[in-house]
Structure formats: structure tokens, C-alpha cells
């Protein structure tokens, strides 16, 4: 109706800027914030993202002699050739890196009682290291915390310590019960997302007051399709990603749907803040009066990370 000029949208933000988002949060009207995050929020911790030209993970897999980069996360290829995945898993295994500013900002949202849920594409578990709990998270692409035998007739479960021992001893993990491969519970291409992803989004999105998207190019479905569910939500703030996504290709061509609109004459709700993810979070924390809290959290966790030998990120 807005696109056809049959109605005018409710104005939520005083201005379509980060300052406007901060004022909205401080007004008390914003009570349920959802974060959608991808690999870009972990790059400052030293973990590569997937698709950045030259530096992304897919651009640096030549040593594994893959038929194509994405094969390392294809379930059929994994069952035939598990060695490349487990070699990569050893390099990126959880526990070697520390959370970034973005991770701690989401923890601050939780501490302030504002975070309804974090929907993450990441498998690095840094959201948990920063202090988010299982109920705070939808790990859309799975987790390293548990592993299962790939045999449908077995499906025996293994814990993180068991898998870590196998990976770091350069053994291909195999089931004690049936000798089939054992795979961490991360979602490969060709596998279904966790059921909780679908059940939670039906409860969370209708209640969402503010959606914060960081570090994802929104190219992988069905995660990217979540944006199309937000036509009932109030505002978005986007770090690093400058694309507009429509829920449905046909609706997108017609100008309908749940796509983000940052700069058209009809823009009224969506905000693009172009910066690194960490800088964007620090800027918003500053506008909210939380910057000193964010910095103290970082220093405290930086100290703990140093004590445990984790790779750290520079505090600015």
C-alpha cells in the first residue's frame, strides 16, 4: 500500500541515521532487538570471512586441491574426502580466537535486557565466549559443541573434547560404534538447518522492534530470507553491507516486499551505517552512552584471553 501511494508509513525514527537509531533505543519504545550476524564480525579476531576477494576463506583453499571452493562444506564431498575439512577445522577450531567488539556489543544488549535473539551464521562459537547463552542464540549453521556419526542408522553423539582430540591428533574422526565418519554439528551445503531456526523465527520476528545486521552479505539461503520477514519491524541498522534484499524476486522487481530501502524517496525505516562492524558498534555504543562499559568489557576479556593464550584483537 505504501508503494502504491495508498497509505503513509508510521514514522519510527526521527532521522535515518545511527543517531536516529540511538534515540529510538533510548526512548524506551525499542524493547526487542534481533541481531543477524555473519563471518564479517569475526574478521578482526583473525578469522577470515568466506567471500572477500583475495582474503576470504574461499579464495585461499588451493592447498586442499578442491574441485571448487565450496566443496569443503559440501556434505557429499565430505563423505568421500573428509581430509580437507578436518585440516581446515584444525586451523579454525574454537578456542583459538577471542571475541570482537561486535560480540561484546551483543552481550551488552543482553545485559540491558534488549536482546531478543542473535541469529548467527558463524560456527566459531565466539558469541558464546562473549557471554551469550544457548537461549540467546540461534546458530543457524550449527556448532562445533557437539558432533554426530553421519550414519542414519547410528547417529551416536560425541562432545567437543572428543572431537578436538581427534582433530588435533590428525586422526579422521570415526564412530566408536559403527566406524562411520563423525562430523561436527555444523550445517553443510546439502543439509537442513536446525529445527530451532524455523520455530524461533516465527516467535521472534513479529515481536522485533529493531533488527541489526552485521558482517553478512546475505547471499546464503534460507538465512538471507529472514530479512523478508521484517516488514512488521521498525528499523534496521546495517554495518558493512550496502545491498538491499527483497523477500521475493518478483516482489523485488515490483518494489514490494520486505526488502531494505536506504535511499529512495520512499525510505522511512532502514538505516545503513557504512563502516567496519567493530567501528559501527563502538559508534552506536557511544551514542547510547555505553562506550565506557564496552571498553571495560573488552579490557577484562582481553586480559582473560591473554591468560589462556587465545589470539587477541587490538583494543582501540
UniProtKB/TrEMBL annotation:
Record has Nucleus as a keyword? yes
**Where does the Deacetylase sirtuin-type domain lie?**
11-291
Can you tell me which residues bind NAD(+)? 39-43, 49-51, 121-124, 216-217, 277
Q: Which SUPFAM superfamilies match?
A: DHS-like NAD/FAD-binding domain (SSF52467)
Q: Which cofactor does it need?
A: Zn(2+)
Query: What name appears for this protein in its UniProt entry?
Result: NAD-dependent protein deacetylase
- Binding residues for Zn(2+), per the UniProt record? 149, 154, 175, 178
CC cofactor note:
Binds 1 zinc ion per subunit.
Task: Name a biological process GO annotation.
Answer: regulation of developmental process
Task: Report the EC number(s), separated by commas if there are several.
Answer: 2.3.1.286
Query: Species lineage, top-down?
Result: Eukaryota, Metazoa, Chordata, Craniata, Vertebrata
Q: This protein's superkingdom?
A: Eukaryota
UniProt keyword Metal-binding, yes or no:
yes
What are the transmembrane regions? none
Compartment annotation? Nucleus
